[in-house]
Amino acid sequence: MDNASFADQIQQGCKALGVTVGEDVPPRLHRLMGELLKWNAKVNLTAITAEGEVVEKHFLDSLAVLPEVEGAGSVLDVGAGAGFPGLPLKMARPSLAVTMVDAVGKKVGYLKAVVVVPGLGLAGTKAVHTRAEGKPEAEGLPRADRVIARAFMDLPDWLDLAPAYLAPGGHVVAMLGKAVGEDELRAQAGKRNLKVVSARAYRLPFSGAERQVASFAKAE
Ligand code: SAH
Reading across the β-sheet that carries 166-176, which strands appear in turn? Predict the structure, then answer.
């Protein structure tokens, strides 16, 4: 895919999702796609390798949660894998302090290499190789304003784990493939002394795939 049609797809997709990114972001995402696919030929990072699918299922799906991240100073992406949603969020909002953590060394090896590639605008992004088990200090992980994960755990397990990493006033963000009803979200939150801050369902712009994102805060 050439740079211009790639940029068109990103900008069109962002428009459909109701999020905005600067003009400098699509060219940098295009280069990130190059790195991802180059590394993926040697190291198994993602099953998604068709360029059109990388655009929608990795990049736009990550950028779709910008509204849930807006206003935060820091993000912890748990089980980041090949860097989703952490890398696109950092590219779109350079002032965010982004830490990605994964339990698999080769994935973290890729993340550490890609964040220092000149021109990607990822400088300062951290990648940590550890198994997140709810003990931030022992694991060398920061507490963050947004603790987020995609395709990592089901909602109950995520709500058990993630609050341990919250900075004061922070939100746990759950990216859900399938919509969970508001009553169920409230019930799952209540069991853990959390409250639902927001929940919204949307579709990916090209495939129409359903998504939901929900945010939670400590109830007290
Ligand atoms: N978030 C990425 C990857 C999802 S796959 C995406 O959406 O594309 C889930 C990832 O979580 C895998 O890379 C796996 O190695 C990692 N993982 C599983 N358990 C973990 C744990 N306890 N701590 C950190 N990473 C973990």
Answer: 126-129, 97-102, 74-78, 144-150, 166-176, 210-218, 194-203
To the question of pTM greater than 0.85 for the whole model, the response is yes
Of 44, 87, 102, 114, the one to substitute when testing ligand 1's pocket (max ligand atoms within 8 A of C-beta) is: 102
- Tens of pLDDT along the chain (220 residues)? 898 899 999 999 999 999 999 999 999 999 999 999 999 999 999 999 999 999 999 999 999 999 999 999 999 999 999 999 999 999 999 999 999 999 999 999 999 999 999 999 999 999 999 999 999 999 999 999 999 999 999 999 999 999 999 999 999 999 998 889 999 999 999 999 999 999 999 999 999 999 999 999 999 7
> Which are the contacts of 169, defined by CB distance < 8 A and separation ≥ 6?
145, 217
Strand, helix or coil for residue 163:
helix
Nearest CA to ligand 1 atom 8: 84
b/e per residue 74-87 (b: at least 16 CB within 10 A): bbbbbbbbbbbbbb
The structure tokens 């059109």 sit at 52
CATH of 3-218, one of 3.30.470.20, 3.40.50.1970, 3.40.50.150, 2.160.20.60: 3.40.50.150
Question: Which one-letter amino acid corresponds to residue 151?
Answer: A
